[in-house]
Design goal:
electron transfer activity; alpha/beta; about 200 residues; five-stranded parallel β-sheet; single chain; binds flavin mononucleotide; two-stranded antiparallel sheet; FMN dependent NADH:quinone oxidoreductase; Rossmann fold
C-alpha cells in the first residue's frame, strides 16, 4: 500500500488545467491501487501562512519557552510536515504564475523544509531525509518553456525535492495553454497522454 499526497495550488477551481491533471492522476491511481489512501491538500481553499516571526521564533526556542501563538504556528507546520513524511507518493500541481510556482506552493515548501525532519545538516553538507519517496509534478503554463532556460519551475522544484531526499521525480507539463490556435488542445492532450503512460 502507498499513501498519496496531492498538493493543489491553482487559484482557479472550475477551469484549472492542473486540477484536471490531478483528477486524472487520482482516477488512474485509484483504478490501479483501490486501497491506497489519497490525501488532497488544497492551498487555494486552505492556504498556509507565510513564514513569520512567530513560527521562526518558535522553531528556534526550547519547547517550554514558546508562547501560545508560537506553539500554534509550529503545530500547523508540524501537521504539514507529518502529512509529507507519511506519504509515499507526492503529487505537486503547479500552475505557472509569473514565471514561477504559485506563492501558495512556495509557502507550503517553506513549512515542510524542516531541519531535523525532512533534511539534516551533516559534515559533508545537507542530507535529505525523505528516502524512498516518489514525486510527480503536474504543471500548467500559458506559454512554452519545457527544456528551455526560461523554465524556472522544473529546475527549482527538482532542487528543492532533491534537497529533502526525493530524487525520483517525474514532470508532466501542459504547455501553450494561452497561446491560441490549437496550442491549448494540443498541450493539454499531450500532457494527459503522458500522464496516462507514466502514472
Ligand atoms: C497570475 C497569473 C500569472 C501567470 N503567469 C504566467 C507566466 O508567467 N507564464 C505563462 O506561460 N503563463 C502564465 N500564466 C498562465 C497560467 O500558467 C495558465 O493559465 C495555467 O493554465 C494556470 O494553471 P491552472 O489552469 O491550473 O489554473 C499566468 C496565469 C495567472 C493567473
Amino acid at each position: 500500500m502507498s499513501r498519496v499526497l496531492i498538493i493543489e495550488s491553482s487559484a482557479r477551481q472550475q477551469d484549472s488545467v492542473s486540477r484536471q491533471l490531478t483528477q486524472q492522476f487520482i482516477g488512474q491511481w485509484q483504478a490501479a491501487h483501490p486501497a491506497d489512501p489519497i490525501t488532497v491538500r488544497d492551498l487555494a481553499t486552505d492556504p498556509v501562512p507565510h513564514l513569520d516571526s512567530h513560527l521562526l521564533g518558535g522553531w528556534m526556542k526550547p519547547a517550554e519557552q514558546r508562547t501560545d501563538i508560537e506553539k500554534a504556528s509550529l503545530e500547523r507546520s508540524n501537521q504539514l510536515t507529518d502529512e509529507l513524511l507519511a506519504a509515499d507518493v507526492l503529487v505537486l500541481a503547479a500552475p505557472m504564475y509569473n514565471f514561477a510556482i504559485p506563492s501558495t506552493l512556495k509557502a507550503w515548501l517553506d513549512h515542510v523544509l524542516r531541519a531535523g525532519l525532512t533534511f539534516k545538516y551533516t559534515d559533508t553538507g545537507p542530507q535529505g531525509l525523505l528516502v524512498g519517496k516518489r514525486a510527480y509534478v503536474l504543471t500548467a503554463r500559458g506559454g512554452l518553456y519545457a527544456g528551455g532556460t526560461n523554465d524556472h519551475q522544473e529546475p527549482y522544484l527538482r532542487q528543492v525535492l532533491a534537497f529533502i531526499g526525493i530524487h525520483d521525480v517525474t514532470f508532466i507539463h501542459a504547455e501553450g495553454l494561452n497561446m491560441g490556435g490549437d496550442f491549448q488542445e494540443k498541450g493539454l492532450n499531450q500532457a494527459k497522454a503522458r500522464l496516462a503512460q507514466v502514472a
